[in-house]
Every structure is written in C-alpha cells, then in structure tokens.
Specification:
With 504 residues, the chain is α+β, with helices and mostly antiparallel strands. It has 2 domains: 306 residues, 3-Layer(bba) Sandwich (FAD/NAD(P)-binding domain); 137 residues, Alpha-Beta Complex (Flavocytochrome C3, Chain A, domain 1), CATH 3.90.700.10. The chain is built from 17 helices and 23 strands. Strands 1, 2, 6, 7, 8, 9, 22 and 23 form an 8-stranded mixed beta sheet that branches. Strands 10, 13, 14, 15, 18 and 19 form a 6-stranded mixed beta sheet that branches. A 3-stranded antiparallel beta sheet has the order 3-5-4.
Length: 504
C-alpha cells in the first residue's frame, strides 16, 4: 500500500453520534487508546437530531415519583410494543437476548448521563408501558453531544471529523483496522484490539432503502450522513441484516425555521436546565405551554386526522398530488423540492383549534393547534379570505390552486368526503416527507460482537447503536436512544477487554 499513511490505536470507533462517543469513552476508561472517526464536519449523529427521550426503569426520577418498576416488567412491555407496531410475526422474531441487555442496563445509562451533567424531566407515561418510563432531555437533544464530547475530551479520546471510513482491513479473518480518507488521501488506521462500528442506519441511502423497501427509495432521511456504511462493511464479511424493511416513516414534518427556535439554541448549562426542570415540575402548564410549543411546532409531525377531516395536500405549483387518505407521504419524492402544503378551510381551522383535534403533539408534553402555528411559526402559516389570496400568501399559482380545489370538491360530491368550501382559507407548510430512521442493523451477540450468518463471530469487529441493532425491535419512544447509549457503554467495554460494566 505505497503512499498510504498509517496510524495506530487499540480501538477504532467509526461514527461520532451518541453510540460512537459512548463506546469510545468507555473503551478509553477501560485503558484502551481510542481513535474515533466521523465523516461529518461535526460530532452529532442522529442523537443530536432526535426528540431526545430515553425510556428506562430504575431511575432516580422513577424513585422520586414513587414508581415501583423493574426490568422484567419493561421486558414484557417491550413485547407489547413490538406486537402492536411491528406485528405479531416480527415480534416472534425479536432478539430477546438484546432486549434483555437493554432493559437490564438502560437505567445505568441514564444515571451515567446524569453524572455527566445531562438533565431529564419525567418520567412520562406511554401505553402500553404499565408505568411512566419516558425521560425527556433538557433543553434539547444536542445536550447529549455537548456532554459526551466534553467527556470524550476529558478521558483522552482522539476524535477526528471529516474522516469518512471506506473499508475494513482484514488480517486472515480478523478485522485489524479501517481505511479512511484524510484530506483526500487514504489512511490506514490500525486497531490492535477491535473496530467498533457506530455509523448509524441507512435512512439516507436510496440504494439500501430501495433494496429492502422499494417504495421508500426516494424519500429523504432526516440524517443525511446515515448511508449504511457500517451495514455494508459488516455484510461484506458475512453478517446478516435483520428487519431491513422496517423504517420509521415516511412521516410528514414541517420545515424548520431559517433561524433555530430558542429551545434549540439554549446551551445545556446546569443552572439553566435545573431551572427548566423545576419550572416543568412546578409551574402551571398555561405558563410553560408557549415555550414548549417552540419545540412541538418545529420538529413533530402533523396528524393524519387533518386529512380525514378535510385538509388536502398541494405542491409548490398549486397542484394536488396525492390521495391524502392513502399513503400520501409516499408521493413527495416527485414533487418540486419534495415539498408540499397542507391546505384547509375555516371549518377545519376552527375544528383544529381545540381538543380533541390537534395539529401535532409531543408525547406527554404538549399539543399544538392552528392558532399556535399562527403565533409560533408565522413563517409556515398562511391565510387568505379567498383561495386566490391564500395562494398569493403561499407563493403558488392562483389559478392552479383554484382549479385543484374545484376538482377536489367535485370528487367530494361523489365520494362523500368533506369539501373545502368557505373561507377564509389556511395553509401550513412547506412540509416534507422523511424517513426518521431504519431498523436494519448488523447481527450481533450479547457482547455486541458482529456475527456472521452462520453464527460465527467476526474477530475484532463490534457494532453498536443502529449499526448493531441485531434484530432488536425498538418500537415506542425512547428505546432507540436507550439502545444507543447502552450498547455503546457495553460494546466499548467488551471491545477493550474489560469485564466490568461499572465504570462511570
């Protein structure tokens, strides 16, 4: 390999999100030298783009609330989620060994994060969990990366950004390192102990989505760097991808504002998050609601009930492009900018201005109605006394919008759906259709070692987070982040050869 530079370490971690940073920290604390390679220009991963909740048992928050809970009950309730959301057939194939790893250790993950400075409020209920288990981060999910990065620097992890990994290096059948690009040149990073894949999912890879779930091929992923790098490298060595067809989405999400909302810009200073936690636990909801809605109206999805009650989707050309009641999220790929607007009349606007009809919700936190969007997101709220007026406000052709609504109303006369009749007319958007995450991860054993299809371990190769999900179903809120931090903690320790999981 003439001309290639060579760098050496005990452990090489591929990926700088929540699972990768956690794996690197625990491997380093176990005495291993660690180089972490991240292809993006910053350490973040999907963790820094998430809603931020972790579902866990045996936490200080549960104990303070007087909630009696245990890992066995959590284990059983995860099975209920799997049956409800993934279906009985897939639930029967769930990886119970990894589910056991998660529920037995996720509480320790929460406690460790709290020691780093992360603050949570909750726990919040989410049936079919029998008791409240969902812990929500303050002030936002970037706090995870803030504290993990600080801890990684403290313990001596050598983290590199703008360093995409191209392939694994093999010596016989053992993984000995990776080849990555550094300033446009190939560099060999050799690992004396192990390589840990923490590269995320493949939600932004048309090829991988098309392979496992063809209708999702052209639907964009929220995290543009998740292109299945770890899955590809592991599969080349004989590892299996479990539940590759399962994807969270496509979901409609409102486009974020040009300037991040206040809640997304707040630093995770302890005094600030402590104040927020106290306020959330003690102040009346009507005082907190405007603040919480800054988060709700930016990152969450509009409810399908809006379409059931008469709202329609139009694109930037003013044309209706989908049957709103039949998988409309699949139709965005061919639209201008892959975007659309939710158009509705005054009757729907009034209906979605009060309970039980809400535009979107953050589970257990707040509901947002049409007036909330008018106040908190004026950049995506439009109103006009006539269709022509609302079209001008939206920036779409007036005549096209009027034609489409007339055609839609004619259909409604035949199919019994609710027409758009009386102004003023309203619109929300742009909205886009997104794949939030994909579930297909490399098969791993209980020590997070990558295993081939025949059950043999790939020596020197570990996988954590979404890259090493191993057929574990993580339905419900808060289980993906729980898995990221828990698999990262334990995977880092196992890769470093440590026998204890009590390092904190």
């Amino acid at each position: 390999m003439t001309g290639q530079q060579v760098q050496e370490s005990d452990i090489i971690v591929v990926g700088g999100g929540g699972s990768g940073l956690t794996a690197a920290i625990f491997a380093r604390k176990a005495g291993a030298s660690v180089i972490l390679l991240e292809k993006h220009s910053e350490l973040r991963g999907s963790t820094g783009l998430s809603i931020g909740s972790i579902t866990a048992t045996g936490t200080p928050h549960q104990k303070k609330a007087g909630i009696a809970d245990n890992a066995d009950a959590h284990f059983e309730d995860m099975g209920k989620f799997a049956e409800k959301f993934s279906g009985p057939e897939r639930a029967a194939r769930d990886n119970l060994e990894l589910r056991r790893v998660l529920v037995d250790n996720v509480g320790d993950s929460v406690k460790w994060l709290m020691k780093l400075g992360v603050r949570f409020y909750g726990p919040m209920p989410e049936p079919p969990h029998r008791v409240p288990r969902m812990h929500n981060i303050l002030p936002n999910s970037r706090a995870y990366i803030y504290f993990l990065k600080r801890e990684a620097e403290r313990v001596g992890v050598d983290a590199r950004v703008n360093t995409p990994v191209r392939q694994l290096i093999l010596e016989g059948d053992r993984v000995r390192g990776v080849i990555a690009m550094v300033d446009g040149r190939e560099t060999r990073f050799l690992a004396s102990r192990a390589v840990i894949l923490a590269s995320g999912d493949y939600s932004s890879s048309p090829e991988w989505k098309g392979r496992f779930n063809p209708p999702m091929r052209d639907v964009d992923g929220v995290n543009t760097t998740n292109t299945g790098d770890g899955q590809r490298m592991g599969e080349e060595l004989g590892a299996k991808i479990d539940f590759g067809e399962l994807m969270y989405g496509p979901n409609l999400r409102f486009m974020p504002p040009a300037k991040a909302a206040l809640v997304q810009r707040l630093p995770p200073w302890p005094w600030l998050t402590g104040l927020m936690k106290t306020a959330l636990e003690t102040m009346p909801s009507w005082l907190l609601r405007p603040f919480v809605l800054q988060f709700v109206t930016t990152y969450l999805s509009p409810e399908p009930t809006m379409f059931e009650q008469g709202a329609i989707l139009v694109n930037r050309n003013g044309r209706r492009f989908a049957d709103e009641l039949d998988k409309p999220t699949h139709a965005f790929g061919g639209q201008p900018d892959k975007a659309g607007f939710i158009l509705f009349d005054e009757a729907v606007a009034r209906q979605f201005s009060a309970w039980p009809y809400f535009v979107c919700t953050a589970p257990g936190v707040a509901y947002a109605y049409v007036p909330d969007f008018r106040r908190t997101r004026p950049d995506i709220y439009y109103r006009g006394d006539t269709l022509a007026a609302v079209a001008r406000s939206m920036g779409v052709p007036e005549g096209a919008l009027e034609e489409e609504v007339a055609a839609y109303n004619d259909e409604c006369a035949r199919n019994g759906r609710r027409p758009l009749e009386k102004g003023p007319f309203h619109a929300l958007g742009p909205v886009r259709s997104w794949i939030i995450l994909t579930e297909g991860g490399l098969s791993v054993n209980g020590h997070h070692q990558v295993i081939r299809d025949d059950g043999r371990v790939v020596p020197g190769l570990y996988a954590v987070g979404s890259a090493g999900q191993g057929g574990l179903l993580l339905d419900g809120h808060g289980h993906h982040l729980g898995w990221a931090f828990t698999s990262g903690r334990l995977g880092g320790l196992h890769a470093a050869g440590a026998n204890s999981r009590d390092l904190s």
